[in-house]
Design brief:
This protein is an alpha/beta fold. Helix content is 38%, strand content 12%. Helix 2 runs antiparallel to helix 3 and helix 5 packs parallel to helix 6. The structure holds glutamine.
Length: 496
């Protein structure tokens, strides 16, 4: 077996047994990035020297008998997490020259536990998108190919498409992402890997470039449910520097992956049966119910009546918060500056040249819904509907332990197929947005392939701080699905 094919759990065992060193593990991934990143564009910035130095430090620590839960494990970091001394762009030209003088809490936690960072991954500009095509640093390619038409360049989903593509193609063992409206789960589904969005407040947002503060959820990607559990345990925890971070102990998520689902009640929301969803997705969803029943769970139909308001609510609240958060990019304090004739001219030129089209569209929507005449009609109304969506989930969780749904209404699409139409793009988020609005944990696990040979994910949603039951049910689906298919482009494969 190639070192790049190992999962985190297996690599940890191999490192502990001295089957290989952290340096060898890092070198294998660095070689894979060199070979494949020119095709995939999964990384904006690769940091091989830092990775090797950290790997040597991990090997030295192990020789001294000191090792942590992630000692020597090579990871990719979405380029929205500030990393000290390493350029952090958020996929935007406006942050092109920005080198943070501090480390985000989530990445600091991973470093504390011995993780090795291979570099910073590509994303839609400021995490606004579902395709990783709106980055100022070029689009990322999905390593999976259509059987019939392998020439088509498929999107990896987004916004965390670089992280998902890197993990799927074996350029990294795991990765970080952020999920504001689906940006961890949807790219995980498109790339045939697992992604976990924890409860709002479970992972600190400190040092994560803000998109929509009340919706931004950092979380992990892995090639198994267990690997996501290992990563989340390190990433999560209370942080006094984030006022919305929650102070409660971080459970042993790995242990949760080994629990059985006997007697659990699983809800299937009838409103998630939307028109336009690929038939195969409906079939896979039915298969998922069957897999859970066979393992002893009881599957019941539930209702989340406000589901249809999820997208319009999200596309008011997210741009509103974004327009406020993005006001800080003025060309004065950090990042790009384009000089002008006076201060106003400098602001306008900097923001005009620094932001891409999608970001400008969101700022326009956001400032409109927050403006004096429209605040009550749009923003305040959206906040009220958001409360109803949360109530849908809390009512449902009176009755069921977890919810089973598809992750996305389609498999990966090709660049240009939907990416030109903003409304089509927004529809991508129909199954993922409600869990962000409600702040509840949700995971996507690969469950099968469509007729084109592309991966499809199933989603498990849990109650607030119900990460353990989400991991338990996710692992049960994973066992039954037995998903072992591999993407066309991956480390060690001869490139065509
Ligand atoms: N696709 C959604 C959007 O464009 C969600 C993005 C995200 O979760 N960061 O806003």
């Amino acid at each position: 077996m190639r070192l790049t094919d190992l999962g985190i759990a297996a690599a940890r065992t191999g490192l502990a047994r001295r089957d290989f060193s952290a340096r060898e593990l890092a070198l294998a991934h660095i070689a894979a990035i060199e070979a494949l990143n020119p095709r995939l564009n999964a990384f904006i910035t690769a940091t091989p020297e830092q990775a090797l130095a950290a790997a040597d430090a991990a090997d030295a620590a192990r020789r001294r008998g000191e090792s942590e839960s992630l000692s020597g494990i090579p990871l990719a970091i979405k380029d929205i997490f500030c990393t000290r001394g390493v350029r952090t762009t958020a996929g935007s030209r406006i942050l092109g020259p920005f080198v943070p003088p501090y480390e985000s809490t989530v990445t600091r936690n991973l470093l504390r536990d011995g993780a090795i960072f291979l570099g910073k991954t590509n994303l839609d500009e400021f995490a606004m998108g579902s395709s990783t095509t709106s980055s100022a640093y070029g689009s990322t390619q999905n390593p999976w190919k259509r059987k019939q038409n392998p020439e088509a360049r498929l999107v990896p989903g987004g916004s965390s498409g670089g992280s998902a593509a890197a993990v799927a193609a074996r350029l990294a063992m795991g990765a970080t992402g952020t999920d504001t409206g689906g940006s961890i789960r949807q790219p995980a589904s498109f790339c045939g890997i697992t992604g976990m969005k924890p409860t709002y407040g479970r992972c600190s947002r400190w040092g994560v470039v803000a998109f929509a503060s009340s919706l931004d959820h950092p979380g992990p990607f892995g090639r198994s449910v267990e690997d996501c559990a290992i990563l989340l345990r390190s990433m999560a925890g209370h942080d006094p520097r984030d006022s919305t971070s929650v102070d409660r102990p971080v459970p042993d998520y790995e242990a949760a992956c080994r629990r059985n689902i006997k007697g659990l009640r699983i809800g299937v929301p009838r409103e998630y049966c939307v028109s336009g969803m690929a038939a195969e997705i409906g079939e896979m969803w039915r298969a998922g119910e069957e897999w859970l029943r066979e393992q002893g769970a009881e599957v019941v139909e539930i209702s989340l009546p406000h589901t249809k308001y999820g997208l319009p609510t999200y596309y008011i609240i997210a741009p509103a918060e974004a327009s406020s958060n993005l006001a800080r990019y003025d060309g004065i304090r950090y990042g790009l500056r384009v000089d002008g004739e006076d201060l106003i001219d400098l602001y306008e030129r900097t923001r005009g040249e620094g932001f891409g089209a999608e970001v400008k569209r969101r700022i326009l929507i956001g400032t409109y819904v927050l403006s004096a005449g429209y605040y009550d009609a749009y923003y305040l109304k959206a906040q009220k509907v958001r409360a109803l969506i949360f109530k849908d989930f809390s009512d449902a969780f009176q009755n069921v332990d977890a919810i089973l749904a598809p992750t996305a209404p389609s498999a990966a699409f090709a660049e240009g197929e939907k990416t030109e139409d903003p409304v089509m793009m927004y529809l991508n988020d129909v199954f993922t947005v409600p869990a962000d609005l409600a702040g509840v944990p949700a995971l996507s696990v690969p469950a099968g392939l469509d007729a084109d040979g592309l991966p499809l994910g199933l989603q498990v949603i849990g109650p607030p701080f119900g990460e353990e039951v989400v991991f338990t049910v996710g692992a049960a689906l994973e066992r039954a699905a037995g998903f072992t298919s591999l993407p066309a482009l991956r480390a060690g494969e001869v490139l065509r």
